[in-house]
Amino acid sequence: MSYRTLLLIVLLAPALLLGGAAALGVAIPVPHWGRDYVLRFVVDEARAPVELPDIAGPDDPNRPLVVIDAGHGGRDPGASGTDADGRTINEKDITLAIALALRDELLRAGGIRVALTRDDDRILPLAYRPEIARLLDADLFISVHADSAGERDEVSGASIYTLSNEASSEAAARFAARENDADRLNGIAIEGQSEAVSAILVELSQQRTQEDALDFAGLVEREGSERLAFVPQPRRSAALAVLRAPDVPSVLFESGFVTNRADRARLTTAAGRAQYAAVLARAIQVYFARRTDTLTSSE
After folding, report:
1. How far apart are alpha carbons 232 and 212 in whole angstroms?
2. Other CB atoms closer than 10 Å to residue 196's CB: what's the count?
3. Alpha carbons 168 and 132: distance in angstroms, whole number
4. What is the pLDDT of residues 111-130, one digit of tens each?
5. Rounded to a whole number, what is the distance in angstroms from the first to the last CA of the chain?
6. What's the pTM?
7. Residues 161 and 254 sit within 8 Å (Cβ to Cβ)
8. Which of 77, 101, 120, 278 has the greatest CB tally within 10 Å of its CB?
9. CB within 8 Å of 164: residues ≥ 6 apart
10. Helix crossing, 91-109 with 270-298: angle to 10°?
């Protein structure tokens, strides 16, 4: 059979089939919307809504609200180290324990509302964490973390990070790159996130928001100067995704190094976590007291 003959059969067969069916009065169904063999696909489905946590504390929306974020969680363990007995110490457990201790300390003192981005061992995308603070209209966002120095067990101390497109040091830049990569490394894909949009939001954020974050970071350093061990130059800055809430003052508190014996003792004991909670709670109380005084004096 020649190529031309085969081509004619291919082109004419459908027409002959339809013509013959019409002559015999047979209807050939044509697919259209609504039939069960026509599949519909949503190509631009919105991502799942952020689940907002409960708010604890005074039942008064005028009271200041702090959102505490326990870093990592679930299948994302964060930094890890080994204690003297050979047990693995994971950052996700430390951050949750400190977050819970801080919440309890604030509730005990009264006057401040508190919400946690997570209160159990579950994974939470980076983008959701500051978004929770924004949706709750929080007055302050604190993300709690811990670090690892690998084989360098002499490295120790806490630090406080604020947002900046320019990292304060090479170490701060490396830390930001590692933390910002957590979602990708743990198989979390959130569509619709744009680095360009994030950068614009940072540029357009109110200057007052950044100033407030720096003010709070200074208070943490001041309140902890005699109670906690800090790294040299503990106030740092980096382009951390978890701090990209343009309208909520946000800081990341790096509590210490799980690879250092002294830090690990504070991070993994109730007494040590109480120290962190007391320092952070005091800084929070002073922070809001200053703003209350400013608001009162301006009226």
Report:
1. 22
2. 7
3. 27
4. 999 999 999 999 998 889 99
5. 96
6. 0.76
7. yes
8. 101
9. 237, 238, 239
10. 50
> Which tokens go with 22?
């019409």
Element (H, E) at 143: strand 140-147
The tokens 């983008």 sit on which residue? Answer: 127
- 230, 234, 263: which is closest to 81 by C-alpha? 263
Dihedral pair phi/psi, residue 98, rounded to 5°: -70, -40
Locate 59 and state its tokens.
């039942």
Q: Tell me the one-letter amino acid at 66.
A: V
Give the amino acid at 231.
Answer: V
How high is the pLDDT of residue 134? 93
- Of the CA atoms within 13 Å of residue 188, those in its CB half-sphere come to 21
Residue 113: closest CA among 62, 50, 52: 62
* pLDDT confidence of residue 56: 98
Say if residues 250 and 213 touch (Cβ distance below 8 Å). Answer: yes
Q: What is the pLDDT of residues 210-220, one digit of tens each?
A: 899 999 999 99
pLDDT in tens, 37-71: 333 434 333 456 789 999 999 999 999 999 999 99
| Contact predicate 125/75, CB 8 Å | no
Q: Which of helix, strand or coil describes residue 177?
A: helix
Q: Domain coordinates of the chain in residue numbers? A: 67-184+204-298
Question: What CATH number has the domain spanning 67-184+204-298?
Answer: 3.40.630.40
* Three-state SS sequence of 181-235: CHHHHCCCCCCCCCHHHHHHHHHHCCHHHHHHHHHHHHHHHHHHCCCCCEEEEEE
Beginning with the edge strand found earlier in the chain, give each strand of the sheet holding 113-116 in spatial order: 113-116, 65-70, 140-147, 250-257, 158-163, 230-238
